[in-house]
Write a structure and sequence with these properties.
This protein is an alpha/beta fold. The chain has 8 helices and 8 strands; from the N terminus they run E-H-E-H-H-E-H-E-H-E-H-E-H-E-E-H. An 8-stranded mixed beta sheet has the order 3-2-1-4-5-6-7-8, sandwiched between helices. Strand 6 (about 160-165), helix 7 and strand 7 (about 205-210) form a beta-alpha-beta unit. The longest helix is centred in the middle third of the chain and has 18 residues, at about 140-155.
Length: about 240
C-alpha cells in the first residue's frame, strides 16, 4: 500500500479522493487550510489518516508542511488537489504551492496535479503574473501554468510519474450545485494515477480527463515555456526544482 498526500482534502474532490484511497487500504495524509477546516477531517483521522494543516496562500506555511512531511515516512504519491477559483489567492494556491511542494518534498514517485478545462483559455505568458497574490489572479492562467508544471516535471524528473488531471466541472463547493459533470468520475482518475499498477497509470506527462488522455493547450508541451515557468518559480520562491 502507498502513502499518499491529498492536499485540500477537507471537502469536495480532495475529500472524496482521500476517503476512497483510505478505504482501499492506503496510508493517506489529509490536508486542511486551518484548524477550523481540519475539524471536518476528524472522521478520516479516526480511520488512520495523518493530518497536516497549512494555508497554501502562505509560502511559509507550505514550507512548514513540507518540513513536517519530510520528517516522517516518505510519501509515495501526492495529489495536488488544493485550489481556489477566484481572488488574490489564485496564483499562490494553484501554482506556487504545488511548485514549492514539488521542489521541497523528498520521495514521491508519483505526482498528480489538478488542472481544468479552463486551462485552454489561459495565456502562455509569464509577464505580469502576480505570484504573491497582491491582486486577483486568473484561474485559467493558473491552471495552464500548473498543467505545464506537470509536463515539465515529467521531462525533468524521468524517475517520477507526473500527470495533470481535469476532473470536470463537478458539483462541489467550488463548482456549484448545478455543475453538470459526474462527481464520482471527478476524483477517480487522480486516485488511479496515484496508486494503480495498471500499465496506463504508469505513464507520465499526460493530461487526463475521466480516464482518458487528451491533448492539452499547445504551450503545455513547449519545452521553452516549461523552462521559463520553472526558472521564474525557482527565482520567485528560492526553491530549485
Amino acid at each position: 500500500m502507498s502513502r499518499i498526500l491529498v492536499t485540500g482534502s477537507a471537502d469536495g474532490l480532495g475529500r472524496a479522493a482521500a476517503e476512497a484511497l483510505l478505504t482501499a487500504g492506503h496510508h493517506v495524509v489529509v490536508h486542511a487550510r486551518n484548524e477550523e477546516r481540519a475539524a471536518a477531517l476528524e472522521e478520516l483521522s479516526g480511520r488512520g489518516a495523518q493530518l497536516v494543516v497549512g494555508d497554501f496562500a502562505d509560502r511559509d506555511a507550505v514550507r512548514k508542511v513540507a518540513d513536517e512531511l519530510n520528517a516522517s515516512r516518505p510519501l509515495d504519491a501526492v495529489i495536488h488537489n488544493a485550489g481556489v477559483w477566484s481572488g488574490p489567492a489564485v496564483m499562490p494556491v494553484n501554482i506556487v504551492a504545488p511548485y514549492l511542494l514539488t521542489a521541497l518534498l523528498r520521495g514521491p514517485r508519483r505526482l498528480v496535479y489538478l488542472s481544468s478545462n479552463s486551462h485552454l483559455g489561459g495565456r502562455p505568458s509569464l509577464d505580469g503574473a502576480d505570484w504573491r497574490g497582491e491582486s486577483a489572479g486568473s484561474y485559467a492562467d493558473s491552471k495552464l501554468f500548473v498543467t505545464t508544471l506537470a509536463a515539465a516535471v515529467a521531462r525533468l524528473r524521468p524517475g517520477v510519474l507526473s500527470n495533470a488531471v481535469d476532473p470536470g466541472w463537478v458539483p462541489t463547493r467550488m463548482g456549484g450545485p448545478s455543475a453538470p459533470d459526474d462527481l464520482e468520475l471527478g476524483h477517480q482518475t487522480q486516485e488511479w494515477l496515484a496508486s494503480s499498477d495498471a500499465p496506463e497509470a504508469l505513464t507520465t506527462g499526460g493530461y487526463w480527463y475521466h480516464g482518458r488522455r487528451l491533448e492539452p493547450h499547445p504551450a503545455v508541451h513547449d519545452t521553452a515555456f516549461q523552462d521559463r515557468l520553472v526558472r521564474v518559480l525557482a527565482e520567485e520562491t528560492g526553491a530549485a526544482l
